[in-house]
Amino acid sequence: LMCYVNSTVDHTLTGHVGQWDKLEDMNIHLYADADLAGERPSYKSTAGTYCVMSGPNTDFAFAARSKNIGGVCSSTPEAEKSAANMGLKSVGMPTLDLVDQMTQQTSPNCCQLTLYEDNTATIQIIKTGKNPTMRYLARHQGINVNLLHQIFFPWDDIKDCPCLLYTSPSP
């Protein structure tokens, strides 16, 4: 570990905030990813999130989190949903609440939260709000798939949705 720290001293994370950017023009980008059964010998999965505030002249990373998922996940979509759920609960929603308090607005147009997910099965499950093959998620992982669907797709017709969920390219 110390060799890694010593060899990466020059690696830094930088961000910038535009002087004239208003909070109302900002968007929150939440990236979620998971590593299925990456911790040996327990085969626990790890969830990670990374959150960025961006605007016309702003790009500032303000939150990152990595955490072991409580139970053993049996598939990649299950681990990815756990990561999306963790990011939404621990970073996304508290940030939206803070922005609403700072601007004294409850308008959904004030700041838009965008979730970036790289697993197409997870994206489809969140879009539809249905997951018949993993009905146990609420009990096993504490994940309500319908809640994720309602947060990112509150419209009756999916064509009215301004695309709050994207597929991010894998590195």
Topology:
Elements: H1 2-7, E1 27-39, E2 44-54, E3 59-68, H2 76-103, E4 112-117, H3 120-128, H4 137-140, H5 145-152, E5 165-167
Parallel strand pairs: 1-4, 4-5
Antiparallel strand pairs: 1-2, 2-3
Helix pairs in contact: 2-3, 3-5
From the structure above, extract its key features:
25% strand; 5-stranded mixed sheet; disordered C terminus; 171 residues; alpha/beta; 32% helix
Summarize this entry quickly.
α2 crosses α3 (120-128) and α3 (120-128) crosses α5 (145-152). The protein is 32% helix and 25% strand.
Question: Would you mind describing this structure in some detail?
Answer:
With about 170 residues, the protein is α/β, with parallel strands linked by helices. The chain is built from five helices and five strands, in the order αβββαβαααβ. A five-stranded mixed beta sheet has the order 3-2-1-4-5, with helices on one face. The two termini are about 25 Å apart. The relative contact order is 0.16.
